[in-house]
Design brief:
14 strands, 24 helices, single chain, three-stranded antiparallel sheet, alpha/beta
């Protein structure tokens, strides 16, 4: 087909014009019958969003994807291109992708009338049949639909009544293509009105021209929930004309979240080789995101993007890598204390409510990390608050006694590996507690030893202070006495 160069050859080939919605539908049907993976790279939507989107395509609907930020709405839209035919024919030189057998523009019609079967035909790859526009308050009708071009009128010496003086906007140029408008509520209401005819009747008007251009466009809109944006809303008549509204969502399980982060994290090749990340850290980072979505300090309507976990994971790797480089080591293993290096990836991705603003973004981020540590700690170790009185042996008794004896642990953020392990090994009973748990891999023993310290802090069994570039763990009572001395209460 692609070797066809003119209209006559195209007619002889048996080519038949096809509307874009039929094209998408037919290709989807074929892929479904062949059990092909259609939405590659989309994880967690297999039983929810993707079936809804496939039903919308089979119904030849325009689609609105409604959901909070970071829910893969734009990625879904871009993948739809793979459901188009690989190439489509157009009248060569047409700015509206005119079908040679069904032209709609004045240029294409005049060209075919002049050249007949010798009209040149060009082929457009499906990757060029995707148009995306971010809706902003300054978008005009001229941007989307078009306007009269006075310069063209003057240079061609044409009156304004001539159709050839029109400068077409993005939508008519997307004829026979997929057109995506991101953040639809940001479009001014009067601009949204301009979409009515295009969606309902498939045609458009420009500056009063009596044009009936039967555009063939697959529209896909994305939007955050209206009650969050506060910048505008989708007007009801426009919503009514968008046949399918599909709700997206965040990962519903930890396993799905882990797969998304692993797929999306952008790591340098040398980072992948030199930095080891025990599974516990991947879980902790996802727990931070889950904790943020439940936090009383964070606006739940704003959402917590999957980009938080992805950026945090990249920062965690870089924190361990930086320590490795500083100490002249060849490899590094992530530590619990490295989680404090991911705070910049958290503070920029959460919107705080009033109580959160009072706490400050840094303290909120620390609270989220603490909550994640607490959750993971309880997955592996007994709850210190629920140990029954009279129990023969407190699993944390040796550790409590060691700290109660006036001992402290100073964990330097950038301590070399040998010093880090030596520091943890000196805590009486710590290694024994971890090794007693058969679920913990031996190679991650020190990671879990540090987890125990941070977990006991969350249950106020021991205390923790941040002092410049280190964390100091000590007896909780001794810490309280020091605070009393500081304020002159003793």
């Amino acid at each position: 087909m692609k070797d066809i160069k003119n209209l006559g050859e195209l007619k002889k080939s048996g080519y038949q014009p096809k509307m874009i919605k039929d094209e998408l539908r037919d290709n989807l049907i074929e892929k479904l019958r062949n059990k092909e993976e259609i939405f590659k790279g989309i994880i967690g939507f297999e039983d929810t969003v993707i079936p809804d989107l496939e039903r919308a395509i089979l119904s030849r609907h325009n689609v609105l994807l409604l959901g909070l930020r970071g829910q893969a709405k734009t990625r879904l839209a871009r993948i739809l291109v793979d459901l188009l035919d690989e190439y489509m024919p157009i009248v060569a030189g047409s700015e509206l992708n005119d079908d040679p057998l069904n032209p709609i523009s004045r240029f294409a019609k005049d060209t075919i009338e002049e050249h007949g079967d010798k009209t040149p035909v060009a082929w457009v790859h499906r990757s060029e049949r995707y148009v995306e526009k971010l809706a902003t308050p300054d978008v005009s009708i001229a941007d989307l639909v078009g306007d009269v071009d006075p310069i063209k009128a003057a240079s061609l010496k044409l009156p304004y009544s001539d159709e050839r003086v029109i400068h077409f906007g993005l939508i008519p140029r997307a004829h026979r293509s997929i057109f995506v408008i991101n953040e639809l509520p940001d479009l001014q209401a009067r601009i949204q009105v301009s979409l009515f005819n295009i969606l309902q009747e498939g045609d458009m008007q420009i500056r009063g021209f009596k044009l009936r251009m039967p555009l063939e466009i697959q529209f896909l809109f994305t939007a955050n929930p209206e009650d969050y944006t506060n910048r505008g809303s989708i007007i009801t008549p426009l919503k009514d004309r968008i046949e399918s509204q599909i709700l997206t969502h965040y990962p519903k399980t930890l396993d799905v979240a882990l797969k998304i982060t692993e797929q999306e994290a952008r790591l340098a090749q040398d980072q992948q080789k030199s930095v080891k990340v025990p599974e516990i850290f991947r879980v902790l980072l996802e727990q931070v995101s889950f904790a943020a979505r439940e936090s009383e300090y964070i606006d739940e309507k704003s959402g917590i993007s999957a980009r938080l976990s992805i950026s945090a994971y990249e920062n965690l790797i870089s924190t361990a890598e930086r320590r490795m480089l500083i100490n002249g080591e060849k490899t590094a293993t992530a530590r619990i204390s490295d989680l404090w290096g991911v705070i910049p990836a958290i503070t920029g991705k959460v919107e705080l409510v009033y109580e959160g603003e009072q706490e400050g973004p840094y303290r909120v981020a620390l609270a989220l990390i603490g909550s994640a540590v607490k959750t993971e700690f309880l997955e592996l170790f007994p709850n210190p608050d629920q140990l029954q009185k009279g129990e023969q042996k407190d699993p944390y008794g040796t550790i409590r006694a060691w700290f109660a004896g006036g001992n402290t642990v100073d964990l330097l953020n950038d301590a070399p590996e040998k010093e880090y392990k030596k520091t943890l090994d000196k805590v009486a009973g710590l290694r024994k507690l971890v090794e007693a748990n058969k679920e913990i891999p031996k190679e991650a023993t020190y990671s879990y030893m540090e987890l125990v310290l941070h977990g006991l802090v969350e249950f106020n069994v021991i205390g923790k202070d941040f002092i410049e570039s280190k964390m100091v763990f000590s007896d909780i009572l001794a810490k309280m006495w020091d605070e009393d001395d500081e304020f002159g209460l003793n």
